[in-house]
Amino acid sequence: MEEASVVRKIVLMIISVIIVLLLIGALGTFIYVNASMKAVDSDNDTTQVVEVPMGATASSIGQSLEEQGLIKNAFIFRLYVKFSGEANFRAGNYELSPSMSMQQVVDELNDPEAGNTPSESAAVPEGSDIEEIGVILSGSLGIDQQAFLDKMKDEDYIKQLIDEYPDILTEDILNKDIRYPLEGYLFAATYNFTSSDDITVDKVVHMMLDKSQQIISPYLDGFKQKELSVHEALTFASLVENEARNEDERKKIAGIFYNRLADDMRLQTDPTVLYALGEHKPRVYYKDLEVDSPYNTYRNKGLPVGPISNFSENALEAVVQPEESDYLYFLAGDDGEIYYARTFDEHEELIEKHMHLDE
C-alpha cells in the first residue's frame, strides 16, 4: 500500500506539472496572438495602397501585408481569417495603415466598397526632377502642371509639410538658392487612384511624401553614422542616381564621391551642371562647366545646395554603404561603360581613349 501511495503521489505531481506547463503555454500563446492582432504602429496613420491580385490566397496576402509593415504576423493573419470565416477578399486596391489593427485590416479587405480598382495612375521614374514629375502628373492624372510647380514654390505650403513630416523635411529645404524645396523628396513609384478619389496636387504630394518617409526612415541611423543630415544624404543620393546605372556602379561611385570630399576635391559631376542649366542633353561641354549656380559642382566644393532629382532606394543604400576603393575619378565612355581611375593622368588617358569631346 505504501508503494502504491507513493506512485499515486508521483503521478499526481507529474500531472500537476504538465497542467501548469500547459496553462503557461496557453497563456503565452494567448499573449502572443493578442499582441500579433494589434496595430504595427498605432501612432503612424500614414496610408498606402495595397493591391490584392485576382485569386490571391490569404497566405500570400498576409505575407505581403507583413512585408509592407501593415500587420505583425502573416501566420496569425492566415489563421485568423480561416477560423473567423472572413477570407472573402476581393481583388482590388485598398488603403491601409500601420495604425490599423489586424481586425481593421481584415474588415477593410472584406469591404466590397473599399477595394476599388485604380482608374488612374502616375508612374514616376527614378531620377525624375520636379519639372519632369509635373509633366507626368499632368499627362497621367490631369493635374495642372503650372499649378503643381507653383505649389512646389509656395513657402507657406512647404512650411506646413515640414511640420507634417519632421523626420524627413527640415528647414534646409527653405534655402533661397534651392530651385524647388521638395526636389528629391518625391519618391519614384507608381501612384494609383480610384474613381472615388479627388485627385488634387495636395493629395498627390502627400502620397509621395508618405512613400518617401516609408523608404527613407530605415536609413536615418545610417545617415547619422556618415555624419550627413537627411538633406545632405538625399542630395548625395540624387547625384549617385544620375551617375550610375546599377547597384554595383552606385556603390562604387558613392565611394569615389566620399574619397573626393575627404580630399577636399570638387565633385565635378556633370548632372549637376545640366540641372544648373535647366537642360537635358546627352553631353556636357567645357563651356557649360562655367555656369554660375550653387548646383554646379565644377565651381563649388562639397555637395550642391540640394538634390537634383529623386532617386532609387539602391542609391540611398549606396550612400550609407559605399564601396571602399582608392579611385578618385570615373567617366562614362561613349560605349556606355563606366571607367575608373586613381590619378588625374590615368583619368585623362581614359578620356582620350573612351570619349570624343567637342569644345
- Biggest sheet statistics: 2 strands, antiparallel
Radius of gyration: 27 Å
Query: Helical amount among residues, as a percent range?
Result: 40-55%
Q: Structural class, from helix and strand content?
A: mainly alpha
By DSSP, the count of extended strands is 6
Spatial separation of the terminal alpha carbons: 111 Å
EC number: 4.2.2.29
Membrane topology: Single-pass membrane protein
Family: Belongs to the transglycosylase MltG family.
Pfam families: YceG
Strand and helix layout:
Elements: H1 2-37, E1 48-52, H2 58-67, H3 74-84, E2 92-96, H4 102-110, E3 120-123, H5 130-141, H6 145-151, H7 155-164, E4 190-193, H8 201-216, H9 220-225, H10 230-243, H11 247-262, H12 270-277, H13 313-320, E5 329-332, E6 338-341, H14 344-354
Antiparallel strand pairs: 1-2, 3-4, 5-6
What does this structure look like?
This protein is mainly alpha-helical and 359 residues long. The protein folds into 3 domains: 48-110, Endolytic murein transglycosylase (Dna Ligase, domain 1); 121-217, no CATH class; 219-354, no CATH class. Helix content is 48%, strand content 7%. The protein has 14 helices and 6 strands. It has a two-stranded antiparallel ribbon with strand order 1-2.
